[in-house]
Write a structure and sequence with these properties.
InterPro entries: Zincin_1, Zincin_1_sf. This is Metallopeptidase family protein. It holds the Pfam family Zincin_1. The chain is globular. It has helices spanning 6-18, 22-27, 72-77, 82-100, 105-110, and strands at 31-36, 46-49, 66-71. It has a three-stranded mixed beta sheet. It is of the alpha+beta class and 113 residues long. It has a single domain (6-50, 63-108), classed as Zincin-like.
Length: 113
């Protein structure tokens, strides 16, 4: 397990988001990415809650933002170095954003995310 202080971890998440292709950022809609400094449910590294873009209809309006939560302690628990944490944060952010775009877990695994 690696210990990364909360501020540094949040910076890693920001860097992962900043590293996304600009085209994806332009398409993302009504989604907030947050960091939870605990472990999260059932050992998850991240969690997407919301209505994926592929399921939104013309009646989609006035709803709270989708939420992507990245779990700091859970990620640190599976990593052995700061570099591994950076890579796992990136992978987890991309994985959860995949859910925002309507991609399921099985397909994300096939794609290596």
């Amino acid at each position: 397990m690696v210990e990364v202080d909360p501020e540094r971890f949040e910076a890693m998440v920001s860097e992962a988001l900043d590293g996304l292709p600009a085209e994806l950022g332009e398409i993302m809609s009504n989604v907030a990415v947050t960091v939870e400094h605990g472990t999260g449910p059932a050992g998850l590294l991240g969690l997407y809650r919301g209505i994926p873009l592929t399921r939104r209809t013309t009646s989609y309006a006035g709803v709270l933002p989708d939420r992507i939560t990245i779990y700091r302690r859970a990620i640190c628990a599976v990593c052995h170095s700061d570099e591994e944490v950076v890579e796992q944060v990136r992978r987890t952010v991309v994985h959860e954003i995949g859910h925002h775009f309507g991609i399921g877990d099985a397909r994300l695994r096939e794609l290596g995310w």
